[in-house]
Design brief:
Oligomer: single chain
Strand content: 25-35%
Number of helices: 4
Distance between the termini: 90 Å
CATH architecture of the largest domain: Orthogonal Bundle
Number of strands: 23
Order of helices and strands: HEEEEEEEEHHEEEEEEEHEEEEEEEE
Shape: elongated
């Protein structure tokens, strides 16, 4: 019975297996054939702009900033003496042009003239005393010489008497008289010699006093000259604050003159300009009210440091308007000149340098450090290819020969060659090697 059960299970399994094989064969025989068709490659429609090499001067980097104009040469006019104003020329008023050395105010000179005359008289007296010392020195020298001669004669005579007295040929009284005379002559000669010896010291003291009086005269003369208050520089009279009858104090400014021929603008530009802006670079200065005025300028100096608070660099521009301002010295009209105190904007243009040519592409074509170019593959199909680029800077301007309506551009240092077609649309749909179709502006 046990063997029969085994045979029944084997037979049942064989039947099931055979049925499964039969069903599978029927299904395979009756299956439908799948239709195969070629897969179409996706083509992106894009617009391109041809990369163009431009002269560096046309795509130079520019920095904009703001500043307040100031005169490079200006002077506060202060009198050098304290006195009363006795005259002010009729034309001297704020706003008039003045030349260097032109009289602005005349001060009372009477006190200074008296001081000068007094010092001169004292110097003349001392000069006369010096001449008298010369005469006295010559006279004393003669007297000393005469006294010496008389002294020698008296000594000789005394010697003769003393010899005669020894031989009883002379009286003692005569010898005593000569000895007394000799002593008196010696005293007189010594006094004369002392007077003669004192002359050089007296002369030195007199000469020192004379020098002091002459110095007083020179000071008085300068003070007398300083009673004329003149313009120290040529320019325009900004203010004058003294009139006839008023007292002015030495060192206290009474007027101000500004020279309009050279104007300086301390311009604050972005810190990125450090190292790129150089002395001599060109700039254009415009008023912030937009009245259309433009002044040509040059970079005169560059600050060596960046302001950490504002992250700005100060560039000093110089506006040379000597020709226009020079013509205005004879006229009160300053129209067209950049005047001190005016708040302006300016644009500094970096020097081009050595005639370099730089690649220019639309700024919207650059994504980070990459652009896409449309290039043909080996089979002649146009495909998108990514290029790593180095962007030097960005510029604003119109280049209608490259692309009408484009105003924002990127200057490329490397990564794109002149003539390559740079894709400017549908950048987010591009992948490396995808086919593209270049279409026109209206498509």
């Amino acid at each position: 019975m046990r063997a029969l059960g085994v045979l029944v299970r084997v037979a049942l399994g064989a039947a099931i297996l055979g049925g499964s094989v039969l069903v599978a064969g029927v299904l395979v025989a009756n299956r439908k054939q799948a239709l195969t068709a070629p897969v179409e490659e996706v083509v992106r429609r894009v617009r391109v702009v041809e990369a163009s090499a431009q002269e560096a001067s046309r795509v130079a980097r520019r920095w904009e900033g703001f500043g307040t104009a100031r005169a490079m040469s200006q002077a506060a006019v202060a009198p050098e003496v304290t006195a009363r104003v006795v005259m002010r020329p009729d034309r001297i008023d704020p706003g008039v042009a003045v030349e260097a050395g032109e009289l602005l105010l005349k001060l009372d000179e009477s006190d200074f003239r008296e001081r000068l005359e007094s010092a001169q008289r004292a110097a003349e007296v001392l000069a006369a005393q010096l001449e008298g010392l010369d005469v006295e020195e010559r006279r004393l020298a003669e007297q000393v010489e005469q006294a010496g001669e008389a002294l020698r004669l008296t000594r000789w005579e005394l010697e003769r008497l003393e010899e005669a007295l020894a031989g009883a040929a002379a009286k003692e009284i005569e010898v005593m008289r000569l000895r007394a005379s000799l002593a008196r002559q010696e005293r007189e000669r010594l006094a004369l010699q002392q007077q003669l010896d004192s002359v050089p010291s007296r002369r030195a003291a007199t000469m020192a006093e004379l020098a002091a009086r002459r110095n007083d005269a020179a000071v008085a003369r300068r003070q007398l000259e300083r009673t004329a208050v003149v313009a120290p520089i040529g320019g325009v009279l900004e203010t004058i604050d003294a009139d006839v009858g008023e007292w002015v104090t030495a060192g206290q400014p009474v007027a101000r003159v500004v020279d309009l021929r050279r104007i300086e603008v301390p311009l604050r530009v972005p810190a990125s300009a450090h190292g790129a802006v150089r002395v001599g670079d060109a700039a254009e200065v415009r008023p912030t009210n937009g009245d259309g005025s433009v002044w040509e300028a040059r970079v005169a100096r560059v600050s060596p440091t960046v302001d950490p608070a504002t992250r700005t660099l100060t560039v000093y521009l110089e506006v040379d308007q000597a020709e226009a301002a020079g013509a205005g010295v004879e006229s009160p009209a300053w129209a067209g000149l950049l005047l001190p105190g005016r708040f302006v904007s300016a644009e500094v243009v970096a020097a081009a340098g050595n005639g370099r040519r730089l690649i220019l592409v639309p700024r919207r074509a650059v994504a980070g450090d990459r652009v896409w170019v449309a290039a043909e593959d080996d089979e002649g199909r146009t495909r998108a290819q990514p290029r790593q680029v180095r962007v030097l800077h960005h510029v604003v301007g119109e280049f209608p020969a490259l692309a009408e309506g484009e105003t924002q551009w990127s200057v490329i240092g490397e990564g794109v060659r002149e003539g390559e077609r740079v894709i400017v649309t549908n950048l987010d749909e591009l992948t490396a090697g995808v086919r593209v179709e270049v279409v026109g502006r209206g498509e």
